[in-house]
Amino acid sequence: MQAEANIQIQEGFAPTKKRKCILHTIEFNENVAIIKYLLKNNAIFQEPLAGHLLLIERITGRELEFPFTAIEAGEKYYVLESTLDPLEIGKGSVWDAYVIIHAKQVVSQYENENGEDELKQEDTIEEYEVVEKKYRMKTKHAYLELSTMVQPETKQAITPYTTNKGNLSFKVYERRPVIKVENAELDKRGNVTLEGFYFFPFSSEKEGLERTMVIGGPEGFEERVIPFETAEREDLNPFNQEQQPFKIMSFMAQLDSKGFCNLDTNSTFRLYFKWEDEDSAGPDQDDLAIPLQLISFKRRVNQSIIISTVSGKKKVSLVTRKKTRSLVIKVVQYSLLQELKKKVRRTVAKVKQHKKTKKAYMVAFKLAGYLPVKKNLVMFESFLGKQYSCNPRAIYEYLKESRPDLELVWSVDGRSISKFEDAGIPYAKRFSVKWLFKMARARYWVTNSRMPLWIPKAKHTVYFQTWHGTPLKRLAADMDEVHMPGTNTKKYKANFHKESSKWDYLLSPNAYSTEIFRRAFNFHKEVVEVGYPRNDVLYTKNNPSDIKELKEKLQLPQDKKVILYAPTWRDDQFYGKGRYKFDLELDLLQLKDKFGEDYVIVLRMHYLVAENFDLSPYEGFAFDFSYHGDINELYLVSDIMITDYSSVFFDYANLKRPMLFFVYDIESYRDKLRGFYFDFETYAPGPLVKTTDEVISAIEKIESDGFEIQSEIFDDFYERFCYLESGQSSHKAVQKVF
C-alpha cells in the first residue's frame, strides 16, 4: 500500500462511512471526459484493486462500463480515474454513476442441523468467494453543470449534475440552455427576488433569440413578462472548461406577488425562462421555455406570507417542487384552523416516519404476537393492500357466505381505503395501530404477494400464500440475474427465501406450477394444488346475461367487441424502487383507425407499473382499467386478449377465447431479463406478433375464423394448465386450509 494520497481534497470532499465514493473532478479533454473520484479503503477489497465505473441509463436500464486506474492509494482512500466516451453517453438521456469493486467474502463450510451457517470461535476460515460491491457516486460540487461538454459530431450537450440526494448523474440533451436559481426569496411585502445564472452551450446558434422571463398561471391567466437584469459571471469562470465557447451570465429579477392574489380560486403560478425568435410573429421551432430550477446544492425553498385582499386573506408561498426543484408561486385562501390542522398532520407524519418510531412499531408488533390468538380472525391482503382482487378476494367471498362465524378483515393501503369503504368491506389501514394488533393476533393470513420482511409471524398464525399467477417467467431462486432497483441477485433471493419460510400453505393451480413453486420459492411445506379460486367466476358468470350486466357496470358499449390489452412489467424499466415504467409500443391510433367502428380496447397494466396514460386522443375507443379491482370482469367482457409474457393468459385460457401475444422485445426479455420455463415461442396458445401491423393482421384472421379457436396447441395447453379449474377451487382451498 502506498502512502496517503497527496491529491488536494477540500473539506467535506473525502469519503466517509456513509459517503464511501465521492467525485473529485471532471474534465473534458479532446472529446473525452476524464473523471477522478475517491473510494473509501476497505480490507475486503481485492488487491490489486479490480472493478470499473458503471453508468446506468435511468429510463432503459442500459449499462456502460469504464475501467479505472488507481492513481494513488492510502490508508483511508483510493484515488481512481476513468476515461468516459461521450459518444456512448450520448446514446441515452440520463445516466447515474456507480463504482463496482471486486471484494472478498468469507465462505463458511460449517452448517448446523437446520442447514444454516454456524461458526465456532475456534474455527479459522480461509476460503473466500469474490463478490461485487456497488457504490453510488456522491458529489458535493455546487456548479457541476458548468462542466457541460458539447459533442461536435452529435451536437449534443452532456451535463454532469448533482441530484437532489447528492449523487452524480449526467444529462444528455440538444438545443437546451442551463438555467439555475441560486437565491430565491419572498419578503414580508410580497416581493419575490430571484438570482441565478444561465448559459447556452450552443450560443453561436442562438444569437438571434430574445431572452425573457415569464410567469404562467391557471387556465385563463394571461402570461406575464418579468423584467430582469443580466451581467457576465466572471466568478464562475474557474468552474468552466477553458475550451468551451459559452459565457456564463447572471440574472436578477423581482416581481410583486400581490398582483396574483385577485383570482377567486386557489392557483399555482410557474416561472419560466424563454428563448424566442425575434423575427417570427408566432411560435417558432427554435423557441424554448425552461422552468426555473433551484440549484441542486441548495435546500428546498418554502417561504410564505399572509396578504389581505378584497376576497379575504390569502396565503402566498414561494416553494420548490420536490422532484424537479422547479420554482412555483402558490396562492390559496387562508384559514388559521386549516393551517393548524396541516401542521398537526405534518408533525404526526414526521413522527411516524422517524427511525425510532418505526423500530418501536416493529417491537410492538412482535410483542403483540404474544397476546392471545383471535381464533376466528382472518386477515386478507391483495397486491400490497392496493386491491380487492385475485385469489384472496375469491376466498374471502366464499368464506363470507359459508363461514359466518369468522371475522374477515382486509389489510388496505391508505391510498386505496375509499374503494373498501364504498363497498362496505371491513378493513384495517396497513401499518396502523389497529392493523398491528389484528395482524399479530389473527389466526389466518391470506395474501397473494410478499409481505415486508420485518413483519414477524406469531406461532399461532397460519400464513396462506395464494400467489398470483401460473409461472412463465423465471421466479426467485430460478432467476439468473435480478435487474430490479434497490437490490441485487443474491440479496433478492435471500430475502425471498426468508419470506417464503414463513408460509404454511402455498396455493397452486396445477402440477406444473407446484414443481416450479417448490424449487423457485424453496418451499417445503404443504402445497394446496386445487386450481386458482379467482378463476371460479370464469365458469359461474360466463353467460350473456352476466356479461351484459358487467358491460353496463364498466360503461362499455354493448354493440362493440372488446379487445383487452394486459401486458406485464419489465424488471429493468423503472423510475425507482417499486415504481416501474412502461412504454406503450402498441399504436392505438392505428388500431382506432382500423377497428374503431366495431371495437373498443381496454388497457390493463400490471400493478407495479406507475404510468398514467393520456388516452384523450383515443376517446371512445381506448379505456384505461389499470386500477380496476377485478381483472376477471375484464376477461369476461372481452372477445380477444392481447398480452405478452404476463401470466394472465393462463387464466384467460379458461374462457377458450382467442388471444395473441405482442412480444416486440422477446429476445431481450427471454435472454436478459427473466427467461422462460417452457418453449413459449413454440407452445404459446396464440400467434406471436412484434408490430402493430401484425396485431391488425392477427385480429383480422380471428374475425375470419368466427372467433373460434381451432388449434391442437391450444387444446394441449388447456389440458396441461386448466384441468383443475371448474368453478370449485375456492371450496377446495377453504376445505384444505380452514
From TrEMBL:
Protein name: CDP-glycerol glycerophosphotransferase
Gene Ontology cellular component annotations, sorted alphabetically: plasma membrane
Its membrane topology: Peripheral membrane protein
Source domain of life: Bacteria
GO molecular function, one term: CDP-glycerol glycerophosphotransferase activity
Chief location bin: membrane
Family: Belongs to the CDP-glycerol glycerophosphotransferase family.
Subcellular location: Cell membrane
Keywords: Cell membrane, Membrane, Teichoic acid biosynthesis, Transferase
Stored SUPFAM superfamilies: UDP-Glycosyltransferase/glycogen phosphorylase
One biological process term in Gene Ontology: teichoic acid biosynthetic process
Entry-linked Pfam families: Glyphos_transf
